[in-house]
Amino acid sequence: MQELSLDRAALLKKCAQVIDTYDPKRTTVDAYVQDAEVLKSKRLGEIEQKFIHQVFYGCVRYQKFLKLFVTSFLYKDAACAIRAEQTLYVILSYLLFFRIDELGVEEFQALIHCGAATLPALHAMMSYAMNVEELENWVKLEWCKVYDQTYIEEEIIGKLQSKRDILRPMLEDLELKATGTITSGDGTMVPLVAKRPLTKFCTRGMPSKPKPRLIPEPEAISRQIKAQPVPSHINHTSLEEVEREKVQRREEERQRCAEKYRDHHSGVTLETAKRRDGTEIEELTRKVEEDRMRECTFRPTAAKAYVPPTEEASVRQNAAAVLREDALLKKKQAAECHALKRYEEDLHDASSYYKWQHEMRLKDQVDEENRVQQRIVEMQLAREEAMEAFEGMKRKKHILAEHHREEINQGIAIRDQEMAEELQGKKELVSAVIGERDNARGEEEKIRKAKEERAERIRQEKKVEKERRQKEDEHEMERRKDLIRQIRALERVHVERFKMYDPAEQPCQGLLEEMSLAELRERLQMETAKQVKELEDKRERQLEKKHEKQLELAEKAETLAKIRDMAKQESQERHAVVKVRKKEAEERQKGFREQCVVEAAEKIAQKKKERREEELRLKKELKEISTKRQFLAANAEMVEAKAHSEQQAGLEREAAARQRIGLYEQSRANDIKKGERAILRVNRAASVDTYEQMKVAVTDRIKRAKADDAVLKSEILQATTSAKALPLKASAPHFTERSYKKAYDTRTMAATQMSTSA
Q1: Full-prediction pTM beyond 0.90?
Q2: 553 near 323, Cβ under 8 Å?
Q3: Domain extents in the chain
């Protein structure tokens, strides 16, 4: 990173403030970065702005990923992590997982040690991020619900683990400053800062520690499921009797309720009897509807007449309006000054050009108005033409419909004759198919018997597999019970801890600028008083600037009022000239419109004449076609006989081709069936061989698993013995908290190995 105008701690706090104040329901990321009040400080340079923008965009983009990581870290290391620094953890996690290559290890280390967050919490977060087992146990499963598993394993965890050697010096330095120790390669803690010896206390006269109580045997969970016997009354009743009993009970209940409330209903007078009659209710309803629909009508009440004001309204301007109008005035003055300067240099100005430009624009406007009026007339002409064309098309379609109706009647007669012939052929085909229907029933019976035999064989195999799986589950349950007993024995070991704290004592962690809690409070009071004094000085300076600004604003307001009066007079003169020109343009448009209407009427009359001539020609052509058809109908029977003979010859050729193709396909189907049977025999033999190999491999694996289980039990027994001996070692003078931690790590490692083997 280049040279910054802010220190790194302030830069990280700015990023955290931007992320905390962002609301995605109100604005977008880019719009919020441009309008955020936090980023409008003059101390922020271009590099800081770009860094904050990229970090903010990245944290929003990977919000789900980072939230899952930080939440799991806060839950796992609740003793080290601070909830108030959660946003800083999100920012540093984003830089570690996604931007470490661009940022560099040195710059990332500088951000870690800048003091924005506490070092023990950052050390715990880095250790958690670099530990593959912790990530897989705590957060990998949740990551895979949002992202692809290959992306998590290769691009996130794998990529970070590939930089372990590069990040190791930074992690050791962070561990040294956070804890005062460095973890060696074998997992032991090497202290680099001399610690005070622990306080020794006398154990003489104290009662001996009680022996750990025996852990009760876990209760066996029965997996046997027994069904309740079928009630005997089910076989002595039916659905009809049940429904009949329901109807009878319902009728009895109805009669009982009627008898109970019979006297109550007889003496009751309802309020509905006192209501108004129907005419009055309808009148009230009509009035309410009129009031409610008055605003929805298309004929609203007339607006009030306009009353011109007798005096000008006084408008009080605020500071923003005065500054905006003053800026506009200065802009106009600068333009006039520039124009005068150009006139002095060139001895001419652009007034003639502007005049010519204005005349050309007026001319273009007049041409555009004429074109619009002409287009309106042409559209009217097109409408009339479309209506006339529609009527002509309807007449033409009526003529063609009469012609087609005659052809359809002739086609219907021919179709009825062909359908009768086709029906006779289908009847013959049905009689042939009925004779071959019984053959399919015999084949279906053979297939059903084969399926029943195969289902019985599969059922027996499943029964054997179920018994084997039940035995394995029982063995697994016994092994888990044994593990639970051993783990509970390890957890029963009790160790007492003593820790004292002195506010006036330094922590002695080997860090720079270390101080005690009392000294820290004194420095905090001094810094608070200093900030209060700076705030008072700044407030006085701001009040002076505010007074000067108000005076300047009053002068600008007086000047603008004078200029506004001059502009008002000029505007009134311009409006009068515009009204005169507008009236002349309306008269010119009216004359042009009348001319266009006359031309359109002439064109419409010409189109109607041409369309009438086209209809007469169509009627004449259809009449000639019908006359020719009458002459050709005489030879229709001869043509039909010839077509029928050609159809019969085609059907015979088609039957011969279909028979030849059927024989060829049947021979191919027989060859394929023979090949499938040969392949099935080979596959069955291969399946038997594979099953034998699998049995040998499973037997070998079970033997090896039993040997590993025996070794594991011996290790667990040894760990239990050493755990029981720990209370005796704790009473010795040389016992320290580190030795207890080593024993606890040994027990934890044994429990982890047991769970892994399970």
Answers
A1: no
A2: yes
A3: 8-191
